Amino acid sequence: MHNMRQIIPILLAACGVAASVGNARAGDASTWSEDTRSAMRLIAGRNAKDVPQLRAGIEIKMKPGWHTYWRYPGDAGVPPRFDFAGSTNVKVAKVLYPAPQVHSDSGGQSLGYSDSVIFPVAVTPKDPGKPATLRVKVDYAVCEKLCVPAEGNAEVTLSAGDSAQDSALQAAEARVPKKVAAADLSLTARRVDGGAKPLVMVELAPPDGGPVQIFAEGPTPEWALPIPQPAPGAPAGRQQFSFALDGLPSGVDPKGPFDLTFTVVKGERAYEVTTRLD
């Protein structure tokens, strides 16, 4: 009995330590909001005290063989939708998108992420001196051979301090395309014919050479441009891609001037360029 009396306080103390550690780590991430084929949660990054922006991320994991979508899904798919209503001490929550991968199937080519993805979130608090509680509802789709809708709800409190999730969030942030000027990539875009759906030729000098992928977006989310395909005939040291001006919103003149945004992906690095098509 004497030994048991000694053991019980030790066990209770050990449980207290374990609970303390568990609570500390739980503060870095919400619980998983699970669906049949996927789950999502919020994670907190490492944040300094009294900074104008706090770092967070929306993590989605999927069963093997399933994928979800980028902000522009390509030939088919549904982009994710994020609703931060109900957040506390949050002025702005801006979702950032890591560079996507191309998925090809019988329905065409789509843009998104396999297995898992973290969407970084830049959070501007109303009062930088106080913690911010981020609450989000995410409507998204996951696809294998068929696409099914999914929904997740999560919340996490952001404040100054370290985070066990920071390395994963940093890796996702590094995959967000860096905004650069068209001149930095020597990127040009021009129409090469005058058809009803003019062909656009994009030419660029990839950083450090080597093959790249590019994706095209219009001025608003209503645009659904084809994925540019490699085109022959580029001068030495440059690459060419072409796509038809298809998928424009009703009433838009395909021969008129407008801004196009190109995401250029080379390995683990990605760039975002907005240029005028006159």
From TrEMBL:
It comes from the Bacteria. InterPro entries: DsbDN (IPR028250). Keywords: Signal. The keyword Signal applies. Residues 53-154 form the Thiol:disulfide interchange protein DsbD N-terminal domain. Residues 1-26 form the signal peptide. This is Cytochrome C biogenesis protein. It comes from Pseudolabrys taiwanensis. The lineage of its organism: Bacteria, Pseudomonadati, Pseudomonadota, Alphaproteobacteria, Hyphomicrobiales.
